Amino acid sequence: MKTVAIIGSQWGDEGKGKVTDYYSKDVDLVVRYQGGNNAGHTIVIDGEKFKLHIIPSGILRGGKKAVIGNGLVVDPKVLIDEIEGLQKRGISTDDLLLSDRAHIIMPYHKKMDEVEERLKGVYGAGTTRKGIGPCYSDKIARFGIRVVDLYNKGVFKKKLENIVPIKNKILQALGEDIEYGVEDIYEEYIRYADVLEPHVVDTSVLLHEALSDGKKIMFEGAQGTHLDIDHGVYPYGTSSNTVAGGCSPGTGIGPKAMDEIIGIVKAYTSRVGTGPFPTELHDDVGEAIREKGGEYGTTTGRPRRCGWLDLVMVRYSARINTFTGLAITKMDVLDIVDEIKVCTHYELDGEEVYHFPADIERLGEYEPIYRTFESWDEQDWTSVAKKGYDALPAKAKEYLEFIEQNVNVPIKMVSVGPGREQTIVR
Ligand code: GDP
Ligand code: IMO
Ligand code: MG
User: Fold this and answer.
1) Closest residue to atom 14 of ligand 1, CA basis
2) Which of 171, 198, 225 finishes a domain?
3) So what's the pLDDT on residue 299?
4) For 254, phi and psi rounded to 5 degrees?
5) pTM for the full model?
């Protein structure tokens, strides 16, 4: 195995931080390929909590290169704050690398994110307001500013002179009392550029060299398959290709370099943001899962909507990503309920539906059809993890093996707590 990608199979927050951190012990580079600081990945090491928004989790292992690929949109201030935050906690950021082709989030992107959400009304996704969508819009429209532009001051200034008056006009026409100044933005961003300069390289060259030297690479997904711009719940998802296929354009390695693709499946479903959610729980059970699972946004602090595991969603993700293995997370949380439901398919107008539909606006009309499992008693999960898969309660194994058979992808890891030691590799 030369490369492994860790991909969320639901709506994000499946535990990608925890799982990438665990697997990263065996790789040389950890690479992010899409998204920005809309992500919030939590890693717990010896009881100490780290929340990463833009820096790949490999930074915490030491001695691994942590690569921010060209497919990301980077808010330089947030990146600098995150670097400084890690340094203060004694974590070296010397091995952090930033692609010279990544796009830069500008102040007007963050403003536009707010304004667009307001204008979209019921079609707003409930974004993180980090400027992600507007920055990707400018990238596709070829209005974007890339990392490399910051180091060619003449070009940077010229691009700002071109774009800033346009953004001002658009925002003012939309009723905003705002006027961005070219000089202000130029000065601010040149300062960021100076700080970031030691990290900036052509990361595609670096990744190719690493692969030819026999090094191992992990791709750390952000968000989840059902937030993908093409394959997710459009328009309620995010603005990048979160799926495994996104690793190639997002880092500049060819698709043939992909070996292992691990889908992370939270043992139930959560969603932060708007849009239909077929298995959502609006009762005490949903509330109990939210509390036990600590389901509050890592980036925005918003309470996450919680519901039962939806295998229609997971099978879809297995297909779109070609999962070679599954990592099931947060099994420990389900000991709070007496019975567990899992959605195997939907019903609409008397018809059974096994494939996730494209018509998101009608998704609310699909009735989830459940299979019910008994839950298990509360466990000392750390000691269960120490003993391995066979030490899991029989009822937990029954649940896991049902998921495995239904999705038709082998389970390779089971997570029973946030810590590194609460991990079972099968
Ligand atoms: P990500 O965005 O996919 O990296 O996930 P988040 O970090 O946003 O949210 C997952 C939360 O669950 C974090 O607080 C993790 O520390 C925590 N977590 C991860 N795996 C487990 C697990 O197996 N059990 C429990 N109880 N918590 C977990
Ligand atoms: P991680 O990597 C959960 C959601 C937002 C919103 C939609 C679009 O921690 O799993 P955006 O700001 O990206 O334009 O918002 O996507 N969203 C996430 N939900 N986890 C995330 O990241 C998310 N990143 C974005 O809530 O509905
Ligand atoms: Mg998260």
Assistant:
1) 42
2) 198
3) 86
4) -75, 155
5) 0.97
